[in-house]
Design goal:
Strand content: 5-15%
Radius of gyration: 28 Å
Number of helices: 23
Bound molecules: adenosine-5'-diphosphate, magnesium ion
Helix content: 40-55%
CATH superfamily of the largest domain: Glutamine synthetase/guanido kinase, catalytic domain
Shape: globular
Oligomer: single chain
Amino acid sequence: MSVPEIFGCDVFNEAVMSERLPADVYASLKKTIEEGKHLDLSLANSVAAVMKDWAVEKGATHYTHWFQPMTGITAEKHDGFISPSGDGHVIMEFSGKELIKGETDASSFPSGGLRATFEARGYTAWDPTSFVFIKNNIMCIPTAFCSYNGEALDKRTPLLRSMEAINKSAMRVLKILGSDATHVTPNVGAEQEYFLIDREMYSKRKDLIYTARSLYGAKPPKTQELDDHYFGTIKTRVSAYMDDLDEQLWKLGVLAKTKHNEVAPCQHELAPIFTAANVATDHNQLTMEVMKRTARRHGFKCLLTEKPFEYVNGSGKHVNWSLSTNTGENLLKPGKTPLENAQFLLFLSAVIKGVNKYQDLLRVSVASANNDHRLGASEAPPAIISIFLGDELTAVLNSIVKDEEYHSAGKQNMEVGVDILPNFAKDTTDRNRTSPFAFTGNKFEFRSPGSKLSVAGPTTFINTIVADVLDEFADELEGAKELRPAIYKLIKKTIEENGEIIFNGDGYSQGWVEEAKRRGLKNYPTTPDALPHFGDKKNIELFARHNVYSETEIRSRIEILFEEYIKTIKIEARTMLDMANKDIFPAVSECVRDYAKTAKLVSDCGMSAEFEMHMVKKLTELTSKMHKAYEKLEKVTEHLEKHINEGEAIAIYCKDTVIPAMKKLRAPADEIESLVGKKYWPYPTYGELLFYV
Ligand code: ADP
Ligand code: MG
């Protein structure tokens, strides 16, 4: 197998297009894509015919409009290419109309009230900037999904709108700076963390099966304290899995690049090479899907939940974000000329101001029941949003604020916006792992997103936030008499007014929580704290200004996110009750019976059964404690189910009442687990799950 040969072999990419499409068709398609226009039907017909032949040659029998509903997964409905030819045979058919538009009965996708169920159908439209590909003999057409009123029912549509917004705003600024670029694209590289566990063990735990998270489990003798897994040698079995995964992703044109072990035992990471935000989103969705599918073949279960195990790190997804021009420039890369530096500092300041002004939105963009277990748990960035710039860049910005010259030992001096910026070597900036939003040399890395989250949401938010500030900058600079001093003044003012968001220290420390409070930064520890702010006036106005979400679209998303939060917790609570009844109580009972029997036999022999009696006593006490907690959780779960549709109010009830009740049940159960003999215990322990060989 040669990588260049297989790379993209299942993708209808530019190479295939230019080879197979008639020259004029190819040229028109390219132009349509570049200009972001809609495909007209005659062009679509020519493309569809060639596309279908290519797909059928590759063994495809069906096609699907592959889209990303608001649940964050991807959805597809398969239609066959077959069409009766009238003589009892079939021919393979696919028209331009079918390529550009599909209709889908999607009444069971959550729409947050956007689409009444009697108007079940939405329509889907090909996003030609993302290539068509073949997966499991199905030709997949990356697609946007809207209601008949044009409201976005998916994650792609707002993402594409936000990409357009930032293109417009960034171009305004670049024009002022005299750039010859004509298009700006936000780029994303999504580092994906995941757990691989043995499938057979997995299948013995209902919590993992129903919730992809362990809801019980005593602390094993060893966890991650030796750091011996991080970047360690990869197990043969895991290595075979990773090779297989890479190969499949390459065939799909996904630029899977690095793979390594992560901090927690059984935890791994895959990082792709970055690409345009919408393509990166598709590729990340595909990566997650292929990860899960491939695991099955290798006897693994791949867990993408944010916090599958207590006592070891959870999994995140780092969203690396930058802006580039069609002239090949990275707008977040420090430059070599005075103008390039002014440009860099201007874009950097725009991000700083945007993040400061819309901290709440960044927190909202990563809010989910499972991610709440990660954020602020000294393993992932805190729920407080701040920016890490590194000492060097912070010193540069400080010198601007103080009107001082910047001197850096061993580095070039610089007069800000006029002369040379030091070269921010990546290693001086990429040290702080505790920061939610870190500048890493030529991009920002947003580290709060959870592992199974679609990158569409956070990316849409970042694009819009930054676009908004760039518009403000353009307004200000367009009227300037002299450009250089105006830029300098603007950067200075922006840093002065937004300095509180910059924090280079330890984000895990309690001291930071207090310090952040003093600085007036927002702290929304949980999803119910954060989510309502999506609908704050300033945020509705922001998204409306850039035509990214209408107020109705925002309200529907808040409703869906609350629903998802509540349902997740409901299922977790019910699973705990089920496991207590079916697994744990019978196991401990059997164990107690054996100790009691032994105690009796030992006493009959005239000996004191001190140990056995102790165990009977201890286990019985714990069991009745557990039983009380069980009854409490049962009661609060009933209440939850009765009020399941009450949105925010019941979400708060979940946070304040259900989750604490779950914790109360888990504690005695875990203690019992550590006391009961192996032969009684009904499911694999943490030790067995995390340290399989
Ligand atoms: P790290 O910073 O984690 O040591 P890298 O810098 O190599 O590692 O890349 C981490 C991720 O960031 C990769 O997915 C990579 O493609 C992505 N990345 C690198 N440069 C950019 C950029 N300019 N814009 C967006 N993502 C980028
Ligand atoms: Mg990284």
